[in-house]
Every structure is written in structure tokens, then in C-alpha cells.
Amino acid sequence: MGVQTAGSCIVTQEGRSAVIENGAFALYDTTRPYSLQLTDHFEQLVLRMPRRALEAHLPEAEKLTALAVGADPGAAQILVKTVRMLADDIEFFTPSAALAVSHGLEHLIVAGLGGLTSALSDSDSPSRIKLIQRYIMDNIRDDSLNIAAIAEQLHLSPSSVHRAFALQGQTVMGWVWQQRLEGIRQELLAGSHKGTLTELSQAWGFSDSAHFSRAFRRQFGQPPSSLLRPQNNRYRLPELRTGWSVAVGES
User: Fold this and answer.
1) Is 4:22 a contact under the CB 8 Å cutoff?
2) I need a surface site. Which of 68, 106, 151, 189 has the fewest CB within 10 A?
3) Which residues lie closer than 8 Å to 82 by C-beta, 6 or more apart?
4) pTM greater than 0.70
5) Does domain 124-235 have CATH number 1.20.1740.10?
6) What is the pLDDT of residues 71-106, one digit of tens each?
């Protein structure tokens, strides 16, 4: 739990980002990828809470990460004031007093986060898949694109990436290959590619030209060569054994 007591912070996790202003706080899970962007002049007090203790009160806690609890009067304001006091005086507490205070903090945290549960809905999955798809399309030609890379860059767990597509009845990499094939098809139809089919498929992330040809035929019902346009109105065929070559053109 990051409690902002000066400056501001942007916390990102699971494809969500929240701005924590002075007097506000947000939850993040340190066992999963996350990032914190802090201003030049800041103070943030961090509380560590056992997962089981939090989930006993809020079973949906995993969905509440990277959502800001504002600095409005209420649980957040009381929590921030209490945490500031504890930061200065915690060493003077007896063990029994510290335990009692920690239980009180749990209730304040739960009260603050509890107000976020009403904002949770099934719309979280569609927004997540749009985020993932946008990242994929921005990197669609990268042959190293995979689920682990996507998850790392978007601060998601690999299972969250899988789950977002499973809800749409798709696999992540299946969707990636579909987009690559469609991109190649559009490039062939536009006649903008001047090289070979192998060069074109490699530029779109295919390392195996035979696999590319099979996948293209399976998706579009025709080989990619059927969409090739003649360059300078001429097709050049392979050399004959006699050393002669044949060119077929249009008048």
C-alpha cells in the first residue's frame, strides 16, 4: 500500500494506471509486475499487508490494484494521518500496542478499498484486451513478440493475458498470426511490396516461409503467390536448363 504524503506517484499494474496525489493511497501486489513513477520531490510511506489478511476482508483484492483511493475526508484521510504518526513514533510502541494498531490499520485500509469494489464490473476484461491488442499491433512485425514480452511490457501476468483472449474464444498468438497474415494480404493487394514473398513474410515475423504459405492458404483459401502483382508489367520465370530465360509480359 503506497500512501502519498508529498508529491505524486503513478502506479501501474495489470494494465491499469492510477495517479496518487498527496493524501491518497493505492494498493499494488509486489509478487506481480508493477511500476511506480514518482515526482522529483515526493514522500511515500509504504505499508506491507499479508495477502491472506487482506483477501479475508476483500476477496476481490487482486482487481483493486492500481486504483487510487482519493484524499477526500473519510477512511483515506484518517489512514494517512495515522500512518504519518506511526512513521514518527512506531519505535515507542509496545508489541501489544503495535499489534492493536495494525489491526486498526487493516480496517482503515479495507474501508478505503471497499469503496472501489462498486466500480468493478465485467467491463474490465474488454478494456484489458483492447490494451493488449493495441500493444500487439504496435509491435506486430517484431518476430520476438510473445506472451511473456507482452505481459512484461504491460505489467500484466501471463495468465491475465491468456485469460483476456480466452474470454473472446481466442488464443493470444493465434490472434497475432491472424493480424500478421491480414497485414501481408493487404500489402500484396496494394502492390506495395517489391521483394520476394519470403522477404515479405520475414518482415511480418514469419521465420519459416513454408509455414507462412500454409497458414496464408488456410486463412484466405488461396496461396499468397496468387496475389503477387507483376513488377514493371513483367513476370520473370526461372532460368531454363539451356541457360535461356523466358519473360512473360503484358502489352
Assistant:
1) yes
2) 189
3) 101, 104, 105, 108
4) no
5) no
6) 666 667 787 788 888 878 878 888 888 888 888 888
